Amino acid sequence: MTDVPERESMEFDVVIVGGGPAGLSAAIRLKQVNPDLSVVVLEKGAEVGAHILSGAVVDPIGIDRLLPDWREEADHPFKTEVKDDHFLLLGPAGSIRLPNFAMPPLMNNHGNYIVSLGNVCRWLAGHAEALGVEIYPGFAATEVLYNVEGAVIGVATGDMGVEKNGEPGPNFTRGMELLGKYVLIGEGVRGSLAKQLIGKFGLSKGRQPQKFGIGIKELWQVKPENHKQGLVQHSFGWPLGMKTGGGSFLYHLEDNLVAVGFVVHLNYKNPYLSPFEEFQRFKTHPAIRRTFEGGKRLSYGARAITEGGYQSVPKLTFPGGALIGCSAGFVNVPRIKGSHNAVLSGMMAADRIAAAIAAGRANDEVVEIENDWRSSDIGKDLKRVRNVKPLWSKFGTAVGVALGGLDMWTNQLFGFSFFGTLGHDKTDAQSLEPASKHKEIDYPKPDGVLTFDRLSSVFLSNTNHEENEPVHLKVKDIGLQEYSELGVYAGPSTRFCPAGVYEWVEKDGRETYVINAQNCVHCKTCDIKDPNQNINWVPPQGGEGPVYPNM
């Protein structure tokens, strides 16, 4: 890039990256503890909530502690309390409902709420701003700033108006430096800054590899006779084979809305598997499709999910800041819930950082956050389910789920596990096997009524990127991509991406890798699952990507 002006800077007590449940809760808690603290939240989405996607059934434990009087507010987003809980095992043509009494108590959803997590974040943002928190939507943090001792002192937002050739365009605007005594990273799953910090400070040393899933979701308006407000239905089994982990959900919200989602564990082996196509097949099951007959699909989105749990959480603290929420990996996998722990982690970090600032500290390591989390409610929540994912991965769905249920019962009743703490072994990228070991999967064509293609789905996500900007999906070695990703693994990126970003296209007698970056819904699956770790997801210009209204 040609010479550009110096960045302007702004100083705060605390800089928070990410306007999700963790970041907003941290901001609110900081101002509750000390109203004089200056706090800023950077959100890469066009508005708070624009990039938030989750099921979501929320355990209110975190919100109850953060905002104890929230139930008295007329505009709170927790409109639908869970009234009925179903667990189904799906076969190719039928289903078996598992009895609720056989499920470990922690799997009970009564007292929880079915919500749009994006709307929860919009509501939290209102509370934060009322307390004096500054929130900057449309600003993507792209760089970590360090002092001469190597401690984190802030972040910089990306330049705007850079053209595809890397040069400033006519609308070029330099990014800003936001400096703070401490920086909290709450970017969500596989955030670009979190990934850098984990590597630089060795935060994953001594931990198990982080594991991930991809969650794909649609929001439907269904016929009144097919709707049962407050029903939560989880299922596993078909269409995934017994060796491929994953599950699915139907959540009945208010106003005849149903959220349907499908999660595939990204440690699957078969490069021909397509999570998107498996999701479309899932909706055709007799126990599922009747809910959507005569209905209308309103929204679509996809996002990676952290699944490593207790043994995969990296060290949270580094000089000058900490990881919070899904940047740290606080999802409870069997419950398919993480927002409650995200809120709790934001509050915990805020309390420790407010105390550090009150003591005159700045840009040092607030080790209290790392030292305290395992004994907190977050640690207790994750510890009792720590073996569910490893057992599922090791023994497959039928045996693994049964052993996982047994393990949750022993943890619930006796406070220990017969298995101790199991490891995860390989990363999800390492789990993929060469195409020569597998057969292609013949997926049915979409009917446009119940099942759909990727491009019509991406359209519903309201995704937009400026076409004349640098591609934000960085392939490190295109030769390796051609030789290995295509030659050895048969091009799995064309299947694991739920947005049609990647294509292998014949051009001049040779296969050429095409990246349709404008389709990207920021799920980060490519960054996780590419077998050579040859794709690096970085933020595009601020404000770009999906705009999820009620997801």
The CATH superfamily of the largest domain bears the name FAD/NAD(P)-binding domain
Give me the oligomer status: single chain
Taken from the alpha-carbon principal axes, the silhouette is globular
Tally of DSSP helical segments: 15
CA gyration radius, whole angstroms = 23 Å
CATH first level of the largest domain: which class? Alpha Beta
CATH topology of the largest domain: FAD/NAD(P)-binding domain
What is the domain tally? 3
Beta-strand segment tally: 24
Q: List segments where confidence is low: pLDDT < 50 over at least 5 consecutive residues.
A: none
Mean pLDDT: 96
Helicity range:
25-40%
CATH architecture of the largest domain: 3-Layer(bba) Sandwich
SS content category: alpha+beta
Distance between the amino and carboxyl termini: 38 Å
Relative strand content = 15-25%
What does the largest sheet look like?
8 strands, mixed
Would you give an account of this structure?
- It is globular, with a radius of gyration of 23 Å.
- With 551 residues, it is an alpha+beta fold.
- The strands form 6 sheets. Strands 1, 2, 8, 9, 10, 13, 19 and 20 form an 8-stranded mixed β-sheet that branches. It has a 7-stranded mixed β-sheet with strand order 6-5-15-16-17-14-18. Strands 3-7-4 form a 3-stranded antiparallel β-sheet, with no helix packed on it.
- The protein has helices at residues 21-33, 61-66, 117-130, 192-200, 275-282, 286-292, 339-358, 367-372, 377-383, 388-414, 428-431, 454-460, 478-486, 493-496, 525-529, and strands at 8-17, 39-43, 57-58, 80-81, 84-90, 95-97, 113-114, 134-137, 141-146, 152-157, 160-162, 168-173, 176-185, 212-221, 231-237, 246-252, 257-265, 296-306, 317-318, 321-323, 473-475, 502-507, 510-515, 535-537.
- The chain has 3 domains: 9-69 and 118-209 and 310-383, 3-Layer(bba) Sandwich (FAD/NAD(P)-binding domain), CATH 3.50.50.60; 80-113 and 210-307, D-Amino Acid Oxidase, Chain A, domain 2; 428-443 and 453-537, 2-Layer Sandwich (Alpha-Beta Plaits).
- Helix content is 26%, strand content 24%.
- It is built from 15 helices and 24 strands.
